[in-house]
Amino acid sequence: MSKSKSAYSIPGKKGKLDTHIIVVWVDNEAGVLARVVGLFSGRGYNIESLAVAEIDSKLNISRITIVTTGTPQVIQQIKLQLKKLVPVHKVADFKREDKNVIFKEMALFKLVGNNNKRQKALKACKKYNAVILDKTTKSYVIQITALRREIDAMSKNLKKMGLVSVSRTGAVAMTRGFEIFK
Amino acid sequence: MSKLCTGAEIVFKCLEDQKVEYIFGYPGGAVLPIYDELKNHNSLKHILVRHEQGAGHAAEGYARSSGKPGVVLVTSGPGATNVVTALTDAYMDSIPLVCISGQVPTHLIGTDAFQECDTTGITRPCTKHNWLVKDIKDLSKVIHKAFEVATTGRPGPVLVDIPKDIQFQKTKYKKYSKKKKLNGKKNNSFSQKDIDELIKLMSKASKPIFYTGGGVINSGPKASELLRELVQATGFPITSTLQGLGCYPGEDNFFLGMLGMHGTYEANNAMHDCDLMINIGARFDDRITGKIDEFSPGSKKVHIDIDPSSINKNVKVDLPIVGDVQDVISSTIKTIKKTKPDFAKSNKQKISKWWEQIEKWRKKRSLDFINSNETIKPQYAVQRLYELTKNKDTYITTEVGQHQMWAAQHYKFDKPNRWMTSGGLGTMGYGLPAAVGVQIAHPSKLVIDIAGEASVLMTMQEMSTAVQYNLPIKIFILNNEYMGMVRQWQELLHDKNYSESYTAALPDFVKLAEAYGCVGIRAKTPEELDDKIIEMINTDRPVIFDCLVDKQENCFPMIPSGKPHNQMLLGPKDQKENKITGKGKTLV
Question: Which residue from B434, B419, B397, B405 is spatially nearest to B244, judged by alpha carbons?
């Protein structure tokens, strides 16, 4: 009769996974990031990337941007659980496909090689607002801002053009137009 | 110019302002300044426990039976880690606790100092919120905020970690002013539209059921009164979770008994077959729902809860109503009275078939057991205990295991706050210290811990606390020498391989009672049981009652893992055609 030897139920059907960008406004106090991140790890939610910094030093507010994947039910839980945390002021949630929201990540590339190679690399980076931050006879440090998958592709492509080191941030997000999220 | 107070003084001033009467605690190096200050505050009584876990559970028992937050005071390091189980327990069962812990002086934090641990780090996942006070100026604000967080919204535990140097430093004390809004975390966000929608669903339903939980109890005694009114006004059947027992009278005809893994046949079948489920302050726990995919497939589901994150967490619902149970029920009753004053009468016809079906299920008498003249059946022991104590406004706590389920099945409650059990976390060793806390809150009431011999040994040391403060708690041990629930699962699912579930060396509980300075009573046969229970009730001192019960008895009915509500296992009378064969090895 019974197939399971477990004292717990067996897992049910899994829903479709979506990628969401969750933006959280928090009091900038000790341990607040641990609370947010601990909530994700403790409840088994994903974090694909994370960006956090103080945005208002007077009101002492930090803005945390988290890219995560989950079923619609899980995404809803993430939002509701976050809202329960005492230092959390508000929580916004955007689908990655949302056209009304701008998402950007920044990456720094260190390229070492001959001039020809480096020029090629710089050209490839052009459409992502490339800025040369440091220049020597043998190397460049280039900064680009782009979407996650574009940076993924770039760091793959640049391998053959002398890419030796990559440093990148998590995504940050902002809505288009004059309205702000309340 | 107002006078300067030390941190320790401020702690007590805050507790006095919060009208705290009892602190459950244990001293140690990092809280000595606070303990030193204790003598100057006569309105606060300190209860010295024997282990910090006991302090936590005692505070839980105090909070659950009185509706006031429980206050715990422990030292740094091991003091704080010992209280973690109790904090987690309170978090799972939504009990308001305020735990104050000492910490090493601020200049030593992070140096692996003696009795240092990262208390706020360790307790972060098991509290609603916690604070490390690094500045004396924040102390009073933080403690008052701690009480606010613990008691508002869905209640829960909080912790304030105070380094020893802060306890010595001086500042001005700021009086407490109650704020209306807590950081935008509002409790009630339902509207009249939600209530109208609920009533529309109620008048359409032909197979409705109320499914109530601990939220009704947490909402206050008024919520339980209103719930009774609501059931009267609708004529709907009602079932309750383990935590909700007492919010509706257990002997009333509308009450189908507890639901869930060890719930009654009628309650679980009614949950499975209903067309409208109204969840009031419960959370669709896995012990309640069984297999989620087949949980009550044909019903519209309404969920009333104060915690928005409880909604759609496990089960998708059709109508969520976020609010305090008391407010939601009160609006519902008002609206029914206004728009459909004779709802129960006009609806009677419509749900009469449903009641007929429920009566059929009831005829199964799923809580029945085969009684014996030679050995005491544990169910019989609980039944007798109930019959002999039901007129005394008795408070019951339990440990965790078979005895807990038998207590829930056979002890009937007709008032809220009379039933204290560890449901969410399932903490063995909860009941004895909880009974200490309950007796502190209700000194003249009868307080009984229905216990198992394995559980009670986990926190047995608190008998010493009970003796010290003359708390006449009764520890009613259903002694079968096994970890009964473990043994039951091993019997049913692991081919009777009773791996490590038998306790081969138990203490003599009667002698143990004497050693603690309380009274030991033993009952061996069904004939002597009543007399011994009466002797226990009439003893005005703490009692350990060693009730030797049948060692093989299992707790039925039962929903086996991974099964929906309508595939229950019934007791031995009904079991022949329903044997479990433990095939497959899906271990979760």
Answer: B419
Kindly provide the residue ranges of all beta strands, DSSP E only, lying in B283-391, ordered along the sequence.
300-305, 319-322
Rounded to whole angstroms, the Cα distance separating B437 from B56 reads 9
Residue B478 contacts residue B404 (beta carbons within 8 Å): no
What's the rounded Cα separation, in Å, for the pair B321 and B325?
Answer: 9
**Residues 6 or more apart from B453 whose CB is under 8 A from it?**
B477, B478, B479, B480, B481, B503, B506, B509, B546
* Distance from the B104 Cα atom to the nearest Cα atom in chain A, whole angstroms: 18
Residue of B128, B134, B582 lying closest to A5 (CB–CB) = B582
B31, B185, B228, B322 from B330: Cα distances, Å: 45, 22, 11, 14
Full pLDDT tens readout for chain A, 182 residues: 445 667 777 776 778 899 999 999 999 999 999 999 999 999 999 999 999 999 999 999 999 999 999 999 999 999 999 999 999 999 999 998 999 999 999 999 999 999 999 999 999 999 999 999 999 999 999 999 999 999 999 999 999 999 999 999 999 999 999 988 77
Nearest CA in chain B to A38: B125
| Predicted confidence (pLDDT) at residue B353 exceeds the cutoff of 70 | yes
Question: Which amino acid does the sequence have at B432?
Answer: L
ipTM: 0.90
- Supply the residues of B annotated as catalytic: 52, 114-115, 164, 485
Provide the 10 A C-beta neighbour count for residue B158: 30
Better pLDDT: B68 or B578: B68
**What residues contact residue A14 under an 8 Å CB cut-off, 6+ apart?**
A71
Give the whole-angstrom CA distance, residue A36 versus residue A33: 5
**Phi first, then psi: what are they for A98, rounded to 5°?**
-60, 120
**DSSP assignment letter at B19:** T
Strands A172-175 and A101-112: antiparallel
Q: Residue A60: what residue type? A: N
User: Distances from the Cα of B44 to the Cαs of B63, B65, B170, B437, in angstroms?
Assistant: 16, 19, 22, 15
Name the minimum distance, in Å, from the CA of A9 to any CA of chain B. 4
d(CA B406, CA B422): 14
CB A90 within 8 A of CB A181: yes
Amino acid type, B287: R
Nearest by Cα to B432 from B147, B58, B178: B58
| B567 pLDDT tier (thresholds 50, 70, 90) | confident
Nearest CA-CA partner of B403 in B502, B460, B481: B481
Q: In chain A, whose CA is at the least distance from the CA of B306?
A: A84
Cα–Cα distance list, B430 to B37, B187, B423 (Å): 30, 29, 10
Q: Work out the mean pLDDT of chain B and round it to a whole number.
A: 94
Adjacent-strand bridge partners of A63: A25, A53
Residues 8-67 of A with CB under 8 A from B: 8-13, 30-31, 34-35, 38, 42
